[in-house]
Amino acid sequence: PYNKKLFILEECVKNYREKQNSQNVLLFSCEICYEDKPYSDTYVNKCGHRFCKSCICDSIKEQMNNTWQKVHCPQHGCSQVIELSDINLYDLVDDKQLINEYTERLNKKMFEEQTILCPKCHNSLLSLNSTVNAQCPHCKHEFCKKCLCVCHPGKTCEEWKKQVDDDNENMRKTTEWIKQNTKICPKCKNPIRKNGGCNHMTCSCGHQFCWLCMADYTNTHFKSNTTGCIQFTN
């Protein structure tokens, strides 16, 4: 009888302690499922956002199955990556095949980020250092790794782009001026500008022609021609 009473007493104490412990367990309200879960059954990412393990596991699996290249925190507006080391350390995904496929995609992404296409010959080259410029091993072309333009020491990519845009605009204006104020020599094809009233033109290449009709010049061109060209105009 004494042993039986002692056993009953021990069971009562045990049940009391378990009840006390259950009441002292800190609970966390998950923002995905809105259920209260013990903190021991949660995961907190490096960004500080915490979720119950069930929800974070489902989110990670869904992202992996959608072939996303990197798994991110499910908190709205947060772009913090959930590291693969955490996924393995906390057993957040129990599908080993899914983990292997995700690892393969990460390795492929890392390789692509370290690979550059030469803007000249379009062959690929690895960029494993932090230097600004690169030289293609195939065609030897040197270029800026950030903007893929020719090397521009002393200028940022934005400054270089502005200079190129300004140069192009100046070239456009120059081309337009040449088009409006010059004509092309029929022989050498270079632009020539008329600087006087005489329509008898002599190009630097030696070719002579009429400025009005562009025909080859002859001694009688302005005296008898069907186009009505006159030698002098204002």
Automatic annotation (TrEMBL):
<dbReference type="InterPro" id="IPR031127">
    <property type="entry name" value="E3_UB_ligase_RBR"/>
</dbReference>
<dbReference type="GO" id="GO:0016567">
    <property type="term" value="P:protein ubiquitination"/>
</dbReference>
<dbReference type="InterPro" id="IPR002867">
    <property type="entry name" value="IBR_dom"/>
</dbReference>
<keyword id="KW-0677">Repeat</keyword>
<feature type="domain" description="RING-type">
    <location>
        <begin position="26"/>
        <end position="233"/>
    </location>
</feature>
<dbReference type="InterPro" id="IPR001841">
    <property type="entry name" value="Znf_RING"/>
</dbReference>
<keyword id="KW-0479">Metal-binding</keyword>
<keyword id="KW-0862">Zinc</keyword>
<dbReference type="GO" id="GO:0008270">
    <property type="term" value="F:zinc ion binding"/>
</dbReference>
<protein>
    <recommendedName>
        <fullName>RBR-type E3 ubiquitin transferase</fullName>
        <ecNumber>2.3.2.31</ecNumber>
    </recommendedName>
</protein>
<dbReference type="GO" id="GO:0061630">
    <property type="term" value="F:ubiquitin protein ligase activity"/>
</dbReference>
<keyword id="KW-0833">Ubl conjugation pathway</keyword>
<keyword id="KW-0863">Zinc-finger</keyword>
<dbReference type="InterPro" id="IPR044066">
    <property type="entry name" value="TRIAD_supradom"/>
</dbReference>
<feature type="domain" description="RING-type">
    <location>
        <begin position="30"/>
        <end position="76"/>
    </location>
</feature>
<dbReference type="InterPro" id="IPR017907">
    <property type="entry name" value="Znf_RING_CS"/>
</dbReference>
<keyword id="KW-0808">Transferase</keyword>
<dbReference type="Pfam" id="PF22191">
    <property type="entry name" value="IBR_1"/>
</dbReference>
<dbReference type="InterPro" id="IPR013083">
    <property type="entry name" value="Znf_RING/FYVE/PHD"/>
</dbReference>
